[in-house]
Amino acid sequence: MREKLFHAKNGLVLKVVHRKSAVEFYLESPNIENRHLDFRFTPDVFNKLLDYILTVAHESWSNPSPQDANSPGSDYWEYYDKKLDNNGYLSINFIENTLSLSRPVDENNKLYQFNKRKIESFMFDISTKRYTV
Questions:
Q1: Which of 7, 69, 71, 122 ranks highest by number of CB atoms within 10 Å?
Q2: Ramachandran angles phi, psi of 65, nearest 5°
C-alpha cells in the first residue's frame, strides 16, 4: 500500500492511498467534524493530484481505460462502503480546482474508494473535461 498527501489551499489535507484493486481517499486533516468537505486546490496541486490518480489507477488495475459512465454502478458520484455500511460521494469541479467529498460516516476519515469501473469513469472525465473548461 502506498500513499501520498495533497494539501488544499483551504487547509484540508487529502491522503490518496492505493493498493491492488483499490484507490482510496482519506481525510488527513485533524479535528474536522464535517461530513461534507470541499478540497480547494491551487491549479498546480490539482493537476498533480489528477496526474497521480491516473498513475495509481494503472498500478492498481490492469489496463484501466477511460470510459463514460453508462450505469449507476460506473458513475463515481456515489459509492457504497460495505465496512462502514453507508454511502460516500465525490464530485469534481475543474473550473475551481475542487474535489467535493462526503464521507460515509462522521467517525471515520475514509472519504471514498474507487473500484475499477468507477476509476475508469473518473479517468474519462479527467481526460475529456480537464482542459476544456
A1: 122
A2: -130, 140
